[in-house]
Write a structure and sequence with these properties.
membrane, 106 residues, 4 helices, transmembrane helix, 2 domains
């Protein structure tokens, strides 16, 4: 059972790592073309893929937690570059999905 969970966590981690690398390459090429720092915020990508779910998530968080959570916490995360959010999340999933090593106490 735990092996399957570790597999799913590792697959999700590798997928997010791929997303982060692609997003970093896209942002890097845009920055080179613009001769300045340019990045794609997570909110823009989420709105492009599913604007309805972004609005629904915002409404749910404001209703159940409060507007401060959406404005200060989630808003700050959504303004970050995609690669800056996806890469730490990928490493966390990969770490959670890694096999435990047994240590012998001598």
């Amino acid at each position: 059972m735990y092996a399957l969970l570790r597999l799913v966590l590792r697959l999700a981690g590798f997928f997010l790592l791929g997303v982060a690398v692609v997003a970093a390459v896209v942002d890097g090429s845009r920055s080179v073309a613009a001769s300045g720092f340019s990045f794609t915020p997570l909110a823009e990508v989420w709105a492009e893929f599913s604007a309805e779910s972004l609005a629904l998530a915002g409404k749910a968080i404001v209703t159940h937690v409060g507007s401060w959570a959406w404005d200060w916490v989630i808003g700050a995360v959504l303004s970050l570059p995609v690669w800056a959010v996806a890469m730490p999340a990928a490493f966390l999933l990969l770490a959670a999905g890694s096999a435990r090593t047994r240590r012998e106490i001598i």
